[in-house]
Write a structure and sequence with these properties.
This protein is α/β, with parallel strands linked by helices and 772 residues long. It has 34 helices and 14 strands.
Length: 772
């Protein structure tokens, strides 16, 4: 069936709507446009040489040295080593990069799905193994095929195993070999839990792979066959498409993506959430999110190997990977997760904010906590739960954070190992190569999404002038260049995102002005929401959303834009943009007045999230520091939340600065000082200023309330001396400590106060002695 140029509700097949879980079952036909011949087509290997299929069996390979020679010669000359992903692979990549839960089950051994860039390795099930690794039939040791190919080029006709001298073959299944039951079980699990199965480029004559179609349909899935020739399973397919895959698959991907969150009834009737029969406006900014894996994984082989080795062994281990935003921490964790999941033995959990430690079973468990420095209470809870778990299976907790600093002391002691992730070695791998690879990957995905994209070598003929060292910033620059945006990449991509959002709101007939769209998106990013009611409350400060009907449609539209993960612990709105773009958008939209209006009606949990996000963004954006200072001056009631976030949010400096300014101009309660642990320096001057102001309060009270004022004054002088000592101000601490001793000595019946004052004096004197 030829795909129409314009996808309209009347001409759209029912199966294209509302796809949530998808499996792509691919065969050799998807790779023919990459220069790899299929087996049974007009120019296929078995068509041109009918006897080869029966000759090249596993038993014959083991028994016949001559056959092994021709086998390795064919491997050495195979077009796979020159092949690149084609439009079909890139269309599958676009699906795998989306919010649709996509699994690729492939009969191919060429690795082109993974090479296409954004198809996660853990979501590619290779039924017949891979040609990119070799395995020894004796000792089962695996190594890269590239090493064996190099040895053949150096003159070894049949390279033996370097460990035991045994027979080597590629880790792909030969005729006569049994398919891995574990791998097939994963494939069967995928097809029996999906809603749509696309069988593409496969004759479905090789079993048991073909039987996956029957399993899927039997479990209630829709089967669509995309193949040039007839297949044995055409009779149970809902639709059969005979168009060339390089034409059909990009069209299918584009339309399924556009309709992923719509049911057919919604689009035809214009039901809430899709007024006017609108479809989703694609937003290229989403390609920069680490889970999209748009660009291929590169330059982190050593780090991945170290983490893989860390996973070995028994017990509970915790490892912290730190580094600046965009250095590739999350992507590294995703690749580790994919490697572990591919073994079929590990469970992996990327823990959502506020989620509890997952109940582990008998299998090893990897738990990943991103932005861990801002989730310290949660981290403490899961570490305690992990160590208390009686299950003997190994547990690994991988913490990802921007910094190793500003962590609570107890948490630091519980982290077994840590490393700081540096920018990739672009000298070794070539920055020009990184730009070229990223440009190819992003261009292919943009094209599959329906964007007109010039050839990458025309956009970046000589690489990228002044290319950033960090992978995230480099990819943002590449994406901006491919979209024809000039200027600072993050700024231009945020403007592009806001323009896409404006078009999307127009498609939904919301008729919102630009500032309302920006305000609604910024509110969702800053506050989040645990429920629809919380979302509606948070949006109430946007003037254009005062009408209840418009507000609920806007909340649901934002939920459609940023759908939550399929988890009972997911928030109403999911995370929206890659961190650099999130922070750029906040800096563009947010003002003190905006924040004040937004935080007047929000819950304490929303206040905490907003201050956490703002503090993280303000760490590199001075204009947001000003916003925080003005916000606390207008809403001093936020100061307890600000103290809490500064102590456990991982980025205390902007909040400490705002709190210090507040303490200089406003009277604050003693409870705030009690909430700041003794010995901490994260809040800088704030505890000292707060204690000084409280000393003044109690001095006045001592004159008017002689029964309670002197006791409070003594206590606060001790507190001030301790806070000064924490900051290393020995002389000031000594002076105040002497005053505290005098004040405590005048108290009657308060035996602990003199002892505490004496201890503060001893500490201050010791500190002063070291200073001199």
């Amino acid at each position: 069936m030829p795909w129409p140029g314009t996808f309209t509700p009347a001409g759209t097949p029912e199966w294209a709507y509302g796809v949530r879980r998808l499996v792509v079952l691919s065969g050799a036909g998807i790779s023919t446009d990459s220069g790899i011949p299929d087996f049974r087509g007009p120019s296929g290997a078995w068509t041109l040489n009918p006897g080869a299929q029966n000759k090249h069996t596993y038993r014959a390979f083991l028994a016949d040295p001559e056959l092994r020679g021709s086998y390795w010669k064919s491997r050495y000359e195979h077009p796979i080593w020159r092949a690149k992903p084609n439009a079909g692979h890139l269309a599958v990549t676009a699906l795998a990069s989306s919010n649709i839960d996509t699994t690729v089950v492939t009969q191919n051994t060429d690795g082109l799905h993974q090479q296409a860039g954004s198809t996660p390795a853990d979501r590619v099930i290779e039924l017949h193994g891979t040609m990119h690794e070799v395995i020894c039939v004796e000792c089962r040791h695996r190594s890269p095929t590239a090493d064996a190919i190099t040895r053949i080029g150096a003159g070894e006709a049949v390279p033996p195993c370097l460990r035991c001298g045994g027979i080597l073959k590629t880790a792909s299944t030969m005729f006569g070999q049994t398919m891995s039951p574990e791998v097939f079980a994963r494939a069967e699990q995928a097809v029996t839990t999906c809603g749509l199965l696309l069988a593409v480029g496969t004759t479905l004559t090789v079993e048991p792979a073909g039987s996956l179609c029957a399993s899927a349909v039997g479990a209630g899935a829709t089967l669509i066959v995309v193949n040039r020739d007839r297949t044995p399973y055409d009779g149970i397919a809902t639709e059969i498409i005979r168009d060339p895959l390089s034409e059909a698959l990009p069209g299918i991907a584009r339309h399924v993506l556009a309709l992923a969150t719509r049911s057919q009834a919604e689009l035809v009737s214009g039901a809430p959430g899709a007024p006017g029969g609108s479809v989703r406006v694609p937003r290229p900014s989403q390609l920069l999110r680490a889970p999209a894996r748009t660009a291929r994984f590169r330059s982190r082989a050593a780090e991945l190997e170290r983490l893989t080795a860390w996973c070995a062994g028994a017990g509970v281990r915790t490892h912290l990977v730190s580094g600046p935003v965009g250095v590739g921490k999350t992507r590294l964790a995703l690749e580790l997760a994919g490697r572990l999941t591919a073994t079929g033995r590990w469970d992996v959990e990327f823990l959502a904010p506020n989620a509890r430690f997952p109940v582990s079973g008998r299998r090893p468990l990897l738990v990943v906590v991103d932005d861990a420095e801002a989730r310290q209470e949660q981290v403490a809870g899961i570490l305690h739960a992990a160590k208390a778990d009686p299950v003997a299976a190994p547990i690994r907790v991988l913490l990802l954070a921007r910094t190793r600093d500003n962590w609570r002391g107890k948490l630091q002691s519980e982290v077994n190992t840590s490393e700081e992730l540096a920018p990739p070695d672009n000298v070794r791998f070539g920055l020009a190569d990184a730009v070229r690879d990223a440009a190819d990957d992003y261009a292919g995905t943009l094209t599959a999404m329906g964007f007109r994209c010039p050839p990458p070598d025309q956009v970046f003929p000589a690489g990228l002038t002044g290319a950033p060292d960090l992978p995230g910033a480099l990819q943002a620059s590449v994406l901006a260049g491919l979209l024809g945006l000039t200027g600072r990449a993050e700024d231009q991509l945020v403007r592009h995102e806001l323009a896409c959002l404006q078009r999307a709101s127009d498609e939904h007939e919301l008729e919102l002005p630009a500032e309302a769209v920006q305000g609604a998106v910024a509110t969702a990013i800053l506050c989040g929401a645990a429920s629809e009611n919380a979302a509606l409350t948070a949006l109430g400060h946007v003037p254009a959303l005062r009408d209840a009907g418009i507000r609920i449609r806007t909340a649901r539209w934002l939920r459609d834009l940023y759908p939550p993960a399929a988890s009972r612990q997911s928030p109403y709105w999911d995370e929206s943009l890659p961190d650099p773009l999130t922070e750029e958008l906040i800096a563009t939209v947010v003002t003190p007045r905006f924040l004040m209006g937004m935080l007047m009606e929000t819950t304490q949990a929303q206040d905490r999230r907003a201050l956490t996000v703002l503090a993280r963004a303000a760490a590199t954006r001075p204009e947001l520091r000003v916003c925080l200072t003005e916000l606390l001056s207008v809403l001093p009631g936020l100061s307890p939340v600000a103290v809490d976030v500064a102590l456990s949010g991982g980025h205390p400096a902007p909040l400490a600065e705002a709190l210090t300014a507040l303490a200089q101009n406003a009277a604050l309660p003693a409870e705030l000082l009690e909430a700041i642990p003794a010995g901490t320096t994260l809040l800088g001057e704030f505890p000292v200023l707060l204690a000084e102001s409280l000393v003044e309060v109690y001095e006045r009270r001592a004159e008017t309330h002689p029964e309670s004022g002197p006791r409070g004054l003594a206590r606060m002088l001790i507190e001030l001396a301790e806070r000064l000592a924490d900051l290393g101000r020995a002389d000031q601490a000594l002076t105040v400590a002497q005053r505290s001793v005098e004040a405590a000595g005048r108290l009657i019946g308060q035996l602990d106060y003199p002892a505490r004052a004496a201890e503060s004096l001893r500490r201050a004197a010791e500190l002063a002695g070291r200073g001199h």
